[in-house]
Amino acid sequence: MSLSIGIVGLPNVGKSTLFTALTKKGGLAANYPFATIDPNVGIVDVPDDRLQKLADIVHPGRIVPATVEFVDIAGLVKGANEGEGLGNQFLANIRNCDAICEVVRYFSDPNVMRETGRTGKFVDPAEDVDTIQTELVLADLGTVERAIPKLEKEAKRDKENAPKLAIAKRLQAWLNDGKRAADMDMTEDEKKAAHDLFLLTMKPMLYVANVDEDQLGEKLAPLGGQDPIPICAEVEAELAELDADEAKEYLESLGLERSGLETLAQAAYHLLGLQSFFTAGEMEVKAWTVRIGAKAPEAAGVIHSDFEKGFIKAETISYEDYIALGGEAGAREAGRLRMEGKDYVVQDGDVMHFRFNV
After folding, report:
1. Could you report the per-residue pLDDT of 333-356, keeping only the tens digit for each?
2. Beta strand 4-8 with 99-105: parallel, antiparallel or unpaired?
3. Distances from the Cα of 144 to the Cαs of 8, 151, 181, 337, in angstroms?
4. Whole-model pTM?
């Protein structure tokens, strides 16, 4: 399962510095607007300590973590929905992502300029979040207004299309009030009807506060109704250049258990309602991504579509039992290896082997 998170924000909030650290990739980072014109894409491992513990038992040829695709999208500016600052291109790149991660400036470096034309306090996270939300809402409003005439014609031809028209008109009024589509109360059927509009503000969203190093331990006020993830992009850039032991020592010196990027990857996973199950063998120990609530055949299909089509059973051991009992043989002997059928709901950390016949 591919997972794509678009990194957005106003110019000079530290997006590209964060992305460079995130992917350990030498991307272009500069202290003036539009240093990044084409989106950079990087595949990032989702940290999971359980993989190594499984590998210590199985001794595989390799360890393969779950991954998240991060897309570094150049800075949005006021008027982006009308094409300002290459806005149309940037908004199109966001549209292709599963979720949005907005980087918000908290750091106070006077050498890094703000977006041209910004007034008031040098650092104003709430104002910056409001600017981005306004641009996304206006872009969605334009999408809905363009869609309504077509939906009206379709509803006249076929009454089954009436729900799509109704939800589009509700969304039009809602967006006109400057509110995100995701915040509007909708039934599951209404959400399905709205899906084909591909609205930006329907996407899950999280916020990263790019802070100064001495702010890392501070409790920050909510942004957009949620707690932002505090990350110091400069610290993360330094961590990216260190080996594992040096990075651990550096984090300890800062009083941190995990890097901000590890926290971000896990938060993105949680934001989209995802979890991991594992396969473990001599060749590899691998984490696979599946949505929370998925049943066993869907999980099998993540590995290969034939596994889902011909699904018979899933040999399943909980992660806790696998570790406590020393692997598959111990779990089998203790009666903790279960044969699960098509209705089994996969649990986070399950170690699974699928039986199938195509």
Report:
1. 999 999 999 999 999 999 999 999
2. parallel
3. 22, 10, 11, 51
4. 0.80
